[in-house]
Amino acid sequence: MQSAIKFKKYFQQKSTTNPFLQQALALALKLDYAHGTAEAYDMKGVLNREKSRYLVAVEYHQKALIYAQNQSSNDQSLICTILNNTGVAYRRLDENQKAFETHFKALQLAEKINDTKNMAIATNSIGNIELATGNYQDAIEKFTQSLQMEKDRKNDLGLAINYGNLGLAYEAVGKVNKAIDYYNRSLKYNVK
């Protein structure tokens, strides 16, 4: 699986299937290794989402979730990750209710196990749903919460994402100067 992750971008650029991922999935299935199978299916979902194949992505994430919830795996953090990835795919399909429900499940589980990474991702994603549905104040609240989590985690990518999202939300409510400030903060972290 490590090779699949390491060479992910290479195979994406070549628009070809990642043979390491295929091998990892085949081996995990052969060994009846639920955790590895879940990770491989989840990655296949992410790769399909990145190619705008959202329905296919949802199918892979759902397969991943079944294996992640298997008694021999039952990795709660992995389940949170898969739920968040599924929610993103639903959001890209503009299925906002399903996306919200999925991210909310991820958030509840992440809070239960104190998985701050998945808490930040779920909160940010819920903010994106609020933004997409015109609930700008709720979006600002969620992005601000996620931003603080990312500050606590010292996660520059998360900071860039949340600052950019806050810029979008403030722009939507007509606070252009504040939006520009947040866009500049996002840019600073993206450049870094």
Structural class estimated from helices and strands: mainly alpha
Task: Please indicate the percent range of residues in DSSP E strands (runs of 2 or more).
Answer: under 5%
Largest sheet: none
| Integer-rounded radius of gyration | 17 Å
| Helical segment count | 11
Task: Identify low-pLDDT runs.
Answer: 3-8, 10-15
On the 0 to 100 scale, the average pLDDT is 91
Gap between N and C termini = 28 Å
How would you describe the shape?
elongated
The portion of residues assigned to helices is over 70%
How many beta strands in the DSSP annotation?
0
Encode the helix/strand succession as letters. Answer: HHHHHHHHHHH
- Name the assembly state: single chain
Task: Explain this structure.
The model is unreliable at 3-8 and 10-15 (pLDDT under 50). The chain starts with a helix and ends with a helix. Helix 6 (76-92) runs parallel beside helix 8 and helix 8 runs antiparallel to helix 9 (136-153). It has eleven helices and no strands. The chain is elongated. With 192 residues, it is mainly α. The protein has helices spanning 2-6, 8-13, 19-30, 34-50, 54-68, 76-92, 96-113, 116-132, 136-153, 156-172, 176-191.
Main features:
single chain, 192 residues, mainly alpha, 11 helices, elongated
